[in-house]
Amino acid sequence: MLDAHSVLARCPLFEELSPADLEALAQQAQPRSLRKGQTLFLQGDPVLSLYVVASGMIKIYRPDPKGQRQVVLHLEGPLRPVAAVAVFLEQPYYPASAEALEDSQLLAIPKEGFFGLVDTRPPVARAMIRFLAKRQQQLVHLLDRLVFHEVAARLAEYLLEQARQAGEGFRLPTNPELAALLGTGPEPVSRKLGEFLRQGFIEMQARCVWIKNPKALRQIAGEQHI
Questions:
Q1: Do 139 and 163 fall within a single domain?
Q2: 165-171: long-range contacts at Cβ-Cβ below 8 A with a sequence spacing of 24 or more?
Q3: Residue 187 belongs to what domain range?
Q4: How many angstroms separate the CA atoms of 40 and 87, rounded?
Q5: What pLDDT digit, counting tens, does each position of 3-24 carry?
Q6: Do residues 89 and 186 both lie within one domain?
Q7: pTM summary value
């Protein structure tokens, strides 16, 4: 059974709350399970809740107008919030879509309950400001990466960042998903992953990755510009 109190206590947005406040929030949180490929919400749906990932991985993306390609904005794994920005939009609709990359469990926190915490609990308000500032920084960095960096540099940077966040043996999305995240096609991603493997920069088993030569990847991420 999903322990809402434990999950929320370790989420960056709520880790500064008192035990009593966490318990009050946990009582509002509603468990939600998604199968791999199942939609959490679609762009344009009304914002009713924000979510916290308990297990699994959620992809947040926007399709192009023809629905033929996706721009992956970010991936959220365990203990990460989803749609924490959307609840504050003046127009209460999700600006992007979200789906499960693997079987996932989440906690859904009703929007109004979350607003009550932000209004009355300064630690939550401060954590929310930090989260929004970091998300803006990530989106600016994504634009910079898409415009100025080659595929090898984008991939090397992504691998290093995932190792920092999730630890060695982190799970890699499929090549099409990773290509969408990096703003390229599956073939260049597959080619560069193969090169990194052959050169001994990484090891990979069943889509789980271990970084073997971080220095080489840092050089690629920092020096290969267009």
A1: no
A2: 165/77, 166/77, 168/209, 168/210, 168/211, 169/208, 169/209, 169/210, 170/208, 170/209, 171/57, 171/102, 171/207, 171/208, 171/209
A3: 149-223
A4: 15
A5: 899 999 998 888 778 888 888 8
A6: no
A7: 0.66
